[in-house]
Amino acid sequence: MFLAEPQTTKFDLHFSVGKIPVRVHPMFWLISIIFGAVAVRGASINIFVGMALWTAAVFVSILTHELGHAVTAKAYGWPPRIVLHSMGGLAIFSPGSQSRKQRILIDFMGPGAGFIFGGLIFAGVLLSGHSANLLPGIGVPVGSGPPLSGGGRLELFVLFLLYVNIFWGLINLVPVQPLDGGHIAKAIIEKFRPRDAWPIALKLGIGTAGVLAVTALLVSGDFFIAIMFGLLGYNNYQMLQQVQAHR
User: Fold this and answer.
1) Is pTM, for the whole model, over 0.85?
2) Is residue 232 a part of any domain in this protein?
3) Which tens digit of pLDDT belongs to each residue from 129-152?
4) I need a surface site. Which of 108, 112, 133, 245 has the fewest CB within 10 A?
C-alpha cells in the first residue's frame, strides 16, 4: 500500500481479476512511461518499444503485488479492491477486528506475491538453458548457460520483470513508512511498545531512509534510489512532527 487513493477520472481503466475490481488511474501509465525512458537508456532496442516493455512489466508486477495483498484480505473475509496510480498501487479493504498477525501477513503478501512470480520467471530462465541475475545489475548471475543480455525484446521484458518483482519487492520491505516494511515494523513494535509504537516506527523510518539514501548516492551512485529514500525520510520526519504535536 502506498499513499492515498487518487480521485476517479473519466480516463480510468476498469476491470476485474476474479471478483476483485481493479481501477487504473491514467497517471499510472504516464509515470511508468517516463520511468521506462530512463530504464531503456543505453539499451540496444528502439526506445518506444523499450518503454512499452517496461510499462507492461510494471503493470503486471504491481498488479501481482496488490493481488497479494487483496487475495490475503479476501481470504480473511474482507472484500478488497485495487487501485493502480502514479506512485504504485493500493489494495483497499475494510477489515473488522484485525489481529497483528493478520496485518503483518497481508502487508507481507504484496512483496511475497512478487517474489513468487519473480521466482517462477527465474526458474523458467534457468530451464531455458540461460543464466540470469535475480537482482539485475546488482547481484551475481546464477546458472551455467549464457546470461540474459536484454538485447532482444523477450530478454529485456524478462529482465524488467525480475528487477521489478525482486528488487522493488525488497525495497518495499524496508522499514520506512508508508512502505509495506514500514507497516510490518510498526505492527511488530506495537507488541512491545503499544503506547509509543508510532513515533518509534517513524524514527526508525527516518534513520533507515537516511542511511539508504546516503549509501545509494555514495556507494552505488543510484540517484533515483537516493532521492526516493530522501523524500521518504523527509515524509517520515513530517509525520513524526505531527504525531509529537498531538501527544
Assistant:
1) yes
2) yes
3) 888 877 766 666 777 788 777 678
4) 245
